[in-house]
Amino acid sequence: MLGTPPPACPVRLCGVTGYDGRINDVVYCHPAVRAEQDMAVVFFGGDVQDFPENMESHRDNKNYVKWNLESTAVLLHTYFPESHIVVVRPSRLTAPKLATFMEFVSSEMDQNRQ
Question: Can you tell which superkingdom this protein's organism belongs to (predicted)?
């Protein structure tokens, strides 16, 4: 709607359906500055990155909670204010330290990338 302020940043979007019915959770930030062209920064989280509450509850990962997916989206938003920021949450966390993006890269159960 015209005159409606953009949503707060970041916005957590769970169960987003993409190409070929594949589903992932994402964290989104709208552009802070209007640009002539639409631009996007897509970031895939690292092995310990997750939502802050999940990182806080893990014995080891809580040491890195400041690098959670939402904080990372905000950080990227400050460096790329004209871009849509999309941070993709791993579809599976094994152990729960190893990130797997099953919807983007096929992998075996032992985390060997193919």
Answer: Eukaryota
Confidence at residue 81, expressed as pLDDT on a 0 to 100 scale: 94
Q: Omega before 90 cis (within 30°)? A: no
Considering the domain boundaries, does residue 55 fall inside one? yes
Q: Is residue 6 part of a domain?
A: no
**Measured distance CA(33)–CA(101) in Å, rounded:** 30
What is the C-alpha to C-alpha distance for residues 14 and 25, in angstroms, rounded to an integer? 4
| Interval 58-63 mean pLDDT | 84
**In which domain, by residue range, is 78 found?**
11-100
Domain count of the fold of the chain = 1
CB contact at 8 A, 64 and 46: no
* Pair 85, 73: CB distance under 8 Å: yes
